[in-house]
Design goal:
The protein has 287 residues and is α/β, with parallel strands linked by helices. Helices cover 37% and strands 18% of the residues. Helix 1 packs across helix 12 and helix 2 packs across helix 3. The two termini are 35 Å apart.
């Protein structure tokens, strides 16, 4: 994908620069949120497919990531949510479909809980409300610090970051910047670790119970690196009995990179053409 497929939109909220890939389209609107240490370009394949299906699509570089502000002082969950609201308002999105992977899915979930009339539907890709893990920040921090940066070439980055999965490596490598003779991350590790503080301290079951719009959970396989276990998913269904769910065989945590066609088809089949004049009310029955 090239920048000719999309335009960059930039806004500033409370002094924090936020960058978006605006794919255009005549709408209904969809807002895509990447995971921790990721970037908006991870959604390129999905964004194009959704646009071709008739959606207006925007992908956000969340604070601390990509082309957005790299050193935000506030990396609370509330700050991430407020950014989503600001993007929706600034870009004139009307009751967008919120799609998020990993931490981006968590942001989408919290946005839907705090602002129930904002989204028309919610798609959680390898994301859920719990449980809290006190060691999560240290684990992710150790992994990020172990990256052999700068990578000497893009191909070296693809090989390392993909860990045997070419599509995953390509997606992660696309988020690097080339400078000083190497390829470097577009984030600071300490910012990433701090962004996980609240997730390490607690679960978010109350927020999940507060979601009032239709919701779809898309899971990878645990053996391939999926992170949503059976107990967590079962509790999600117990609290939101109308939750739609599907797993993608052979895909791991980065479903959006490994199987973008499958994910896009699932999103389109789930969301359908909305009536944007109607409020978001209730969760669809399971199918």
């Amino acid at each position: 994908m090239t920048s000719s497929d999309w335009t960059e939109s930039t806004l500033v909220r409370d002094g924090v620069r936020l960058s978006c890939r605006d794919w255009g389209g005549s709408g209904p609107d969809a807002l895509l949120l990447h995971g921790l240490a990721g970037h908006s370009g991870e959604w390129d394949a999905v964004a194009r497919l959704l646009r071709e299906a008739g959606h207006r699509v925007v992908a956000l570089d969340q604070r601390g990531h990509g082309r957005s502000e790299r050193h935000p002082a506030d990396v609370s969950r509330a700050a991430y949510v407020a950014d989503v609201v600001a993007v929706v308002e600034e870009l004139g999105l009307v009751r967008p479909l919120l799609v998020g992977q990993s931490l981006g899915g968590h942001t989408a979930l919290l946005t839907a809980a705090a602002h129930p009339r904002l989204p028309r539907a919610l798609v959680l890709v390898e994301a859920g409300p719990g449980p809290g893990d006190p060691g999560l920040g240290d684990l992710i921090g150790d992994w990020l610090r172990a990256w052999p940066v700068p990578f000497p070439s893009r191909e070296a980055a693809v090989a390392y970051l993909g860990n045997g999965k070419r599509a995953v490596g390509e997606g992660w490598a696309d988020g690097l910047e080339e400078r000083d003779g190497g390829f470097w991350p577009r984030f600071e590790v300490d910012v990433m670790v701090r962004s996980l503080d609240e997730n390490g301290r607690r679960a978010f079951w109350g927020e999940w119970a507060a979601v009032r719009c239709p919701a779809l959970a898309v899971l990878g396989e645990g053996a391939q690196g999926g992170i949503i276990g059976g107990d967590e998913y079962a509790e999600m269904v117990r609290i939101q009995a109308g939750l739609h769910g599907m797993s993608v065989p052979g895909a791991g945590h980065d479903v959006h990179l490994e199987r973008p066609e499958v994910l896009s088809g699932a999103i389109l089949g789930f969301a359908g053409p909305p009536d944007v004049s109607a409020p978001c009310a209730g969760v669809h029955s399971s199918s």
